[in-house]
Task: structure prediction
Amino acid sequence: MDSAAQLAEIVRAVTNEAWDDVRAHIDGIDDAAVANVLEATPPRVRGELWLLLDVRRAAGVLHRLNEAARAEFVETMDAGQLAALADELDTDDLAFVLRRLPDAMTEALMEAMSAADRARVEAVLPYPEDTAGGIMNTDAVAVRPWHSIELVLRYLRRRQTLPDGTDNLFVVNAEGGYVGALPLARLLTADPSSAARDVMDTQVEAVPVSMGDALVARRFAEQDWVSAPVIDDAGALVGRITVDDVVDVIIEDADEALLAQAGLETDEETFTPVLISARRRAVWLGVNLITAFLAAAVINLFEETIAEVIALAVLMPIVASMGGIAGTQTLTLVIRGMALGQIASANLGWFLNRELLVAALNGLLWATLVALGAAVAFQDALLGCVIAAAMAINILVAAVSGSLLPSLLSALGIDPAIAGGVVLTTVTDVAGFFTFLGLATLAYG
Amino acid sequence: MDSAAQLAEIVRAVTNEAWDDVRAHIDGIDDAAVANVLEATPPRVRGELWLLLDVRRAAGVLHRLNEAARAEFVETMDAGQLAALADELDTDDLAFVLRRLPDAMTEALMEAMSAADRARVEAVLPYPEDTAGGIMNTDAVAVRPWHSIELVLRYLRRRQTLPDGTDNLFVVNAEGGYVGALPLARLLTADPSSAARDVMDTQVEAVPVSMGDALVARRFAEQDWVSAPVIDDAGALVGRITVDDVVDVIIEDADEALLAQAGLETDEETFTPVLISARRRAVWLGVNLITAFLAAAVINLFEETIAEVIALAVLMPIVASMGGIAGTQTLTLVIRGMALGQIASANLGWFLNRELLVAALNGLLWATLVALGAAVAFQDALLGCVIAAAMAINILVAAVSGSLLPSLLSALGIDPAIAGGVVLTTVTDVAGFFTFLGLATLAYG
Result:
């Protein structure tokens, strides 16, 4: 049964309050599917579904939920319940939970946890969430360079299990310093009498514990890593990052980029409570309203001209919106290029050059077509000339603003992914209205 | 040296035509970094840099480039050069290259390739690129259920190497049917006298060869897989997918989503040639122009009213743009929700309900504030009432359109991620202008 059908079944059972059916459905699907269902239902319903999960299930589902939903459920649990969960959670998920609890709860939970859980989470809590230290696990299996492969194999057989997603053991020297990685694949194919130092891979670069998570993700993607060792400033092995955590980072960052453009916050999910959602969106609407007022103020300067040539009121949104559309394309390319490390001050000049050429070509084309259309529709050749000039100018302005705004905003400490679109459309609206109505005032004045 | 600094160094050396320096820089950075540099330079420069790479380097770099750049370089090579590369490329990258060559070239290359390369690429060519079959490799290592662990270990030691990213061997029965996965971690910790069938993991579900790549990526992300077996309709093992390919799919899909909103095509890169870029953007500008004309036509209906109350021309963009902003937020959430499988017809009603509530709250708030502002600025209480009503209505219209458009567009076979924004702003612009100017005509008429 595909997920849309599953969802429909569960929704139907919930609406009919057939809780036995609901329980049966939930038991029949895996943790990831349950997480999906929880995210796809409004808070009231979701709360009921959560109560149907036992502790073990709850842990598996909790770590798969998006941030907002996770925080929501964590808030409903007491220290004892959380401590029971703690054992089932990976270190980074446990740290995530702890960071979001009110202080009193955090202390209570730390006390209720087992010593082992407490030790492993304390190893990562000092590091910010969006760094290598914040997404690593402390369960790396380490051996010494002088250990023979046969010794390592015997050790592993005694262990009976390896941590999830272990594709490398790590080789550390007597001081705990990281020296190389020992892939399981090599363990299986190497001569058992050779030493770890002869078999290990020294090319695998270690990730500094302070590296930003987006950069870590990029290294994983570029180098096709499955796991990577994490070292502190002294070069000592402190943990490992596995590709599944990196995949989560990539997905979350992509989500964030998509939402940011629309002014939605990163923990806005499908069913964020109405009041919280309304309040956040009110802020965004407010900011955009200010920019709309700026544009209105510009139009206001030319009231007389509009009164004289009413056709201007009909055509002015066309000029403004074309600039906004063209500028947004440039802006999107620049923001993406900067995120990929492909656009920096070194080649911004080349890029701007290219955007101006593209804008000139398009400006010429559309200015001409729109001018003809306007001149014919309003039987006014002068109007055609005015709108042609305004459109061409505005498309060029859009290319320049789109290219330069991100650097400018970054320099001011503002995230271009969030603010870029708003500022750009303000610029193109103001420039568009000003140019069009200004030229009209000169032409008809 | 970080990548921005590297890029700056190489750009400087290229501008000074200090080709020895350029070569030295390129030799000093890894394949992924070279790929980044190539993507960050205009076509002319990039072509010169490409010529500095030997065959082995070229293969490593080629597979790391984005689609557009890859296609560009492939076109510059002859069959002999491509055949030399073929040996170094993974099966899915080789298939990618073959698919994009002109037919004559494809035949020439197939003949020039080694028999082994030809066999492995022919195994995957039948499958569409955006399916499991299109991203899989055919180098899965398989064993029989009755083989003892000791036998498997001896076999691996004789092999001397395992394919990259192997974390599982796969267990197939005498007919070639997939029965389970044998994680390397288990191989190392299991009792050597046990049989593969006793140690293997039968919970790992196999991926059908026809499954879409986005869905494959989602399964990998949900289940934290590192590799997955691929089976055909008969249940026979035909290949395996590794997480690094899935990471590439996720990154490409995220890129596509970001670009689609701005009307940019998926293979638009930072330095797409000017003419190609201009032509594509011309199409997008043209489409948006049509929608702008629709809005202009609506304004045109009310020329007389605007002539009477010029303040309308000043305020009307505010009403339209607020609707567009609010509607875009709803639209973004719906498109994301649908992609995640969290919004389907089953819960769309709940979602619409929630969006209407949020819209009502915000509509009330901003309609009131804007009304007061307008009434004071223009000393006209009636104007305030008109704009209040129009804004409130338009924000509600935005919530409804944003919620329902994606399903409507999908049903018509149109991709909501591309067309959704354009259609939505058309609706909110037309509705905004019509409501505002229409109410004004009634009020002042």
Summary: The radius of gyration of chain B is 29 Å. The first helix of chain B runs from residue 3 to 15.
